[in-house]
Amino acid sequence: xxxxxxxxxxxxxxxxxxxxxxxxxxxxxxxxxxxxxxxxxxxxxxxxxxxxxxxxxxxxxxxxxxxxxxxxxxxxxxxxxxxxxxxxxxxxxxxxxxxxxxxxxxxxxxxxxxxxxxxxxxxxxxxxxxxxxxxxxxxxxxxxxxxxxxxxxxxxxxxxxxxxxxxxxxxxxx
Length: 174
Fold this sequence. Notes:
Strand order of the largest sheet: 1-3-2
Shape: elongated
Order of helices and strands: EHEHHEH
Number of strands: 3
Mean pLDDT: 87
Distance between the termini: 39 Å
């Protein structure tokens, strides 16, 4: 059984009426554990929100790009696209399906390699490395509706480690 359809772009879902900070955690897993504990204690968790703060962008360099690597990656990408187009065309043509797919894949690989090399050459060596990027939060704050804050603090304070010390210590406070 599934619930009603939810639009994640609905601003009402991403806001609380009068949010107050319940706790700040170093990891998302810690914040999630605190909210999960509240849920286990039958706290109305629909009045909570986890907010990632202090965002930073990370970029992990995965390797150096050369014309050969760029051409190979472009050819591979074009090969798949060409095979897909060839398969679509073969639906409307009788006979020679394998030849249609193979020739479209070959043309796609050639076109993909040429297009990738042209794009790489256009950068003139400004970015001759590959990388993976991610935006991550360094802290995770659990917010709760003001009218439920004290009840949530009481529940979390009963289990050591779920309510971090706001002054930097490792123990709970209450």
